[in-house]
Amino acid sequence: MEIFAYSFMVRAFIAGVAAAVLTSTIGVFVVLRRMSIVGDSLSHASLAGVAAGMLFGFYPFYGALLFSVLAALLIEVMRAAFKRYAEVAIAVVMSAGMGTAVVLISLGKSFNADLFSYLFGSLMAVTPGDIKVISTLGLFVIASIILLRRELFAVTFDEDTARLSGIPVKAVNAYFSVITALTVALSVRVVGTLLVSALIVIPAAVSLQLARSFRSAFFISNAVAIFSVVAGLYISFYLDLAPGGTIVLIASSVLFMVLLLKKGVRKGWN
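The line above is the sequence of Zinc transport system permease protein; the predicted structure tokens follow.
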């Protein structure tokens, strides 16, 4: 096919599908834990990392990874301090991340054009080096989820029961926050920092509308995310659109269609 004659598009599809699998898998846990806003918080931190990399001369992608992980750990520390109001930790880190990003961007006025590709994603931005990092850390994230699936399941649905059964809840939460941060940072090259949280939440939201079991929720979420990414990359290539926005609009359309169809089916039964 014509689109795959371009090496940058091959890299974009590899990175995009990897990001789709990672975000949609993590997203099921995030939504069930009622932490949907955590994606926004970590994406703002990754934007600060991108800006820091551009300002201080190191690769912005690595800055996104570092800042996202640090933000995830900070969220866990603050959640322990605000046990009754855990969402405060996420909101504070989100605000601090955005504030840091704005200050760093204002200090490095000359790189605003380059920053655009990190904000909204870019088909041409993914390098062979990025593919290696995304593949390596992506496999690490998936392997972590598989190995800790029972602990994550228990902590997601009832932390108190998980604690009584001997599961180190604090350690599991901290580790989950770190792999969520890695997922966010690994996805910014294709989707962009401003829209990556949508790819975490929307496919998971679709799956929770359709799934009849915990396992099927992952398959449906993965399928929606991969379809959205593949279709979004095709459309953005031929119409010269920002890939992040196109991908998110397709995923949103799928969610709205599912909601409308379910509503129609219910009315038909009544």
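Note on the example: The first helix runs from residue 7 to 32. DSSP finds twelve helices and no strands in the chain.
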